[in-house]
């Protein structure tokens, strides 16, 4: 058992290491002013609104329709909803003495992981196409909550929850398109299929390079100075993913789905925390510190938790 755990740990750690080395390119590009955070923010729109949806749709197109995959789709959605609801429940018990704006940042950070920009590429590296298949369900659910509960919280409860955003967002739309294509086993012409495959291949490196530019702008003195940030790191990186891993195990789901969902649940604070904070006139320094510290710690916590998921 120890040998299997060590082997899994080294495998996952190497994949995490590759992704963070790609992020280091973004870090270096920002520091040398070749490609700075402002450029990264513009590229996020391209990633989030076009490349990520194409990646998700392409995965559904490539998946073989089997009874296991059809059932797995429904189960993955249910468990992704359960993960977010559990995280919301945990966050609601915290930071009650803070004002609504700061409390909203902490609640958003606790609830939402870097599912699209870090977890999806890692799931592909560790699990393969099935990892993207199940992680895509998590990303869709992430968007449902982020565009409703998340915006409501990070705006200090000033922004009203718009139910239209439950569906009208890139993650949800791509899954809504992808599921029928998967169920009907639609075969695209080679020219379309090859184009989608090449665009999808851009998702991981581009996402991590953008992530590196954001990381380059963290205040490294502050990210390790505040006890509140350590508390958020514990909840986001350990309590929530470990609890959900136990639930995944009790649910009896297969190893591929369990690993993919655990990767999504154990990822650090979502990169878009700072962007949403800026959009809704909230503090932007604190979100960057939360993303920075959890990203550093995730280099250790994610390989350990995912290695456990692979063997239980």
Please name the defining characteristics of this protein.
312 residues, mainly alpha, 79% helix
Overview of this protein structure:
It is built from 12 helices and no strands. By secondary structure, it is mostly helical. The model has no long low-confidence stretch (mean pLDDT 92).
What are the SSEs and their pairings?
Layout: H1 2-31, H2 37-62, H3 67-92, H4 100-111, H5 115-127, H6 129-154, H7 170-184, H8 190-216, H9 227-251, H10 255-266, H11 272-279, H12 285-311
Helix pairs in contact: 1-5, 1-8, 1-12, 2-6, 2-7, 2-8, 3-4, 3-6, 3-9, 4-6, 4-9, 4-12, 5-6, 5-8, 5-10, 6-7, 6-10, 9-10, 9-12, 10-12
Structural class: mainly alpha
Q: Catalogue the unreliable spans.
A: none
Query: Main sheet, how many strands, which sense, barrel?
Result: none
Order of helices and strands: HHHHHHHHHHHH
Q: Can you count the beta strands?
A: 0
Radius of gyration: 18 Å
Shape: globular
Helix content: over 70%
Count helical runs: 12
Distance between the termini: 10 Å
Strand content: under 5%
What is the residue-averaged pLDDT?
A: 92
Quick summary of this structure?
The chain is mostly helical. It has helices at residues 2-31, 37-62, 67-92, 100-111, 115-127, 129-154, 170-184, 190-216, 227-251, 255-266, 272-279, 285-311. Helix 4 (100-111) packs parallel to helix 12 (285-311), helix 5 (115-127) packs antiparallel against helix 6 and helix 6 (129-154) packs antiparallel against helix 7.
